[in-house]
Design a protein that fits this description.
The chain has 120 residues and is of the alpha+beta class. It contains 4 helices and 5 strands. The strands form 2 sheets. Strands 1-2-3 form a 3-stranded antiparallel β-sheet. It has a two-stranded antiparallel ribbon with strand order 4-5. Helix 2 packs parallel to helix 3.
Amino acid sequence: MASGTACQEGVGSVHRWPPVTCKQVGYDARNNRLVGQCFAGDDDLQAMMVSAGWAWSFGQYSNRYAPEEREAVTAKLGVHGHKCLPPWEWRAQHWKAHTCTPWRSTIGLIYCTAPSATRC
């Protein structure tokens, strides 16, 4: 199963969760945008996604979810369970061949993408 499909199926179960709330936890001056953290009840959604292997922790912006990612890597969960190239590595390899607007996470994460995705 492609990592994007697994991510979509997992996130699709959100309707069973408590209402989602987000709060601003910082500001990304370089990209002129807010940095947020989202919760379903008391559960940190980003931590849950990284722990399940549905998202990478993007250490360039934050190490907030590094422990959860280490556990997912060790357990070979989600994107860590197969040869899946992180989006920032894929973009670095393909930016020279394509012109696009880079997509960056505002919460220190890069979300699941299908290996065949053309989004940059």
